[in-house]
Amino acid sequence: MPPIVDHPLRYASANELHARPFPKLSAPARAAYLALASDVPSGDAQRAHLIALLDRYGAAHPQPDATHYSGQIGKHMLKWESHTEFVTYTIFDTGNANPPFDASTFAMFPEDWLESAPGTRITSALIRVEKLDGDDGIIEKANDWFVPESLAIARVLEDELVIASDFRIDPAGHMRMAVFARETTGGRRIGRVVQRMCEVETYKAMAMLGLAKVRDMGPELSRLDAQLTGLVGELNSDALKSDETLRQLLQISAALENTVAQSAYRFGATRAYEAIVNQRIFILREERFKGRQTFGEFMMRRFDPAMRTVESTQTRLQGLTDRAARASDLLRTRVDVERSAQNQDLLTSMDQRADLQLKLQRTVEGLSVVAISYYAVNLALYLLGPVEQVYGISKTLLAAGATPIVLVLVWLALRRIQRRMH
Q: How many Å apart are CA 138 and CA 355, to the nearest integer?
């Protein structure tokens, strides 16, 4: 029996499910995280930037077209991931920085290498992983490391870990995240939690780009809304100039369609990023820690309103587009009614012209009978010339007798011709 032929994408699809493995960490540990926006449509520049970092440490290169990489660079572990709009770098090291969240931790990324990055920073973070020996002292540390008003802290994964952050940028320009792990917590579980926290921060930052887009669109949408409302209000006016109104409606519709085309990708990406943020938080299985707000509650208070603003603006944009379409339909209906009235007037005018032409035709027919009869009588007089000489009948009497007969014959001949034509 011949072997079964595999689909060309079978192995690639199966391997994709196991791509991007989680790091393995043991407390205490620290990490520096960096997410860069891809300013170029191709990933070649980002991959070249990664290779430049690997070459500094003589590390192996990733496979061509690879979208993720994990490997040792010197005494550190590097994890690199390429996404549609951004790439992420995470460098892990053992031990904790002293003092906590020391900006020198980020020096694991070479300064000149950062300056040559082919993109802009979306977010960066310093992650501190400590051993959890009871709950004592965690709140004090959290209040010291983070802004208490913004602090989000929670037990996760059946109280095996406690995570904390305030999602604020510190004076060094980085987010701060803390993970407290119990002695019995495995290294892969710690790595997954650290990875999830970095993903929450990154996808939150990417989703907030939608809010910036919405704020830029606001004044233009308000202007188009006011113009469209004014035009719709004038549709019942007798002084409305349909051609000018139609031109303005076309301009508004074109501007709206252009806005839809420019914002469609960002709106779609924002919805996707929002879903990923909520999903990443959900799988952490949070529990409240000493009455403080959890990550989910923080997002509900601070992040969800921004996403609702994006959603409402998208709905508003769609509503304006629909209103412009309905206004165009109303204007088209008005133009059709006006055109029907014009056509009715034209038909009435054509009927009047037809009646006038019929009257003129009958007048011409009467004149034609007279003209033809005149020439026919003259011809008849030439034919009756001998009668005048033989019988002595005057030409006047012959003309008087022939004229009625000729008129009748000519009239009958014309009627017969008309009947044949009809």
A: 103
b or e along 311-322 (b: 16 or more beta carbons within 10 Å of the residue's beta carbon)?
Answer: bebbebbeebbe
- pLDDT tens digits for range 346-385: 888 888 888 888 777 777 766 677 777 777 777 777 777 7
Spatial contact of 265 and 360, defined as CB atoms under 8 Å apart: no
Instruction: Give residue 83's region: left, alpha or beta (phi > 0; psi -120 to 50).
Output: beta
The alpha carbon torsion through 46, 50, 53, 58 (nearest 10 deg) reads -150
Cβ contacts of 276 within 8 Å, gap of 6 or more: 199, 203
Tokens of 336: 């059709």
For the stretch 34-69, pLDDT in tens is 999 976 555 688 889 999 999 999 999 988 878 889
Task: Please give the full DSSP string across 373-422, using - where no structure is assigned.
Answer: HHHHHHHHHHHTHHHHHHH---HHHHHHHHHHHHHHHHHHHHHHHHHHH-
* pLDDT tens digits for range 343-353: 787 888 888 88
Structure tokens at 122: 């979306």
Q: Single out the residue of 367, 374, 365, 368 nearest to residue 406, CA to CA.
A: 374
Tokens found for residue 183:
């002695």
> Helix 304-383 vs helix 395-421: angle between axes, to the nearest 10 degrees?
150
Strands (E), 190-318: 287-288
Residue type, 343: N
Q: How far is CA 230 from CA 217, 224, 236, 322, 327, in A?
A: 20, 10, 11, 16, 11
Tokens of 175: 């987010």
Token readout for 386 is 């001998």
Concatenating the DSSP letter of every residue in 150-191 gives G-EEEEETTTTEEEEE-----TTS-EEEEEEEETT--HHHHH
Contact 327, 235 (CB under 8 A): yes
**Domain locations in the chain as residue ranges:** 15-194, 206-336, 367-421
Residue 179, pLDDT > 80, answer yes
d(CA 162, CA 292): 12
> Which pLDDT score, from 0 to 100, does residue 340 have?
77
| Dihedral angle sign, alpha carbons of residues 131, 132, 137, 140 | positive
CA dihedral sign, ordered 340, 346, 352, 357: negative
Nearest Cα to 259, choosing from 208, 207, 306, 213? 213
Q: Which two tokens stand for residue 306?
A: 């921004």
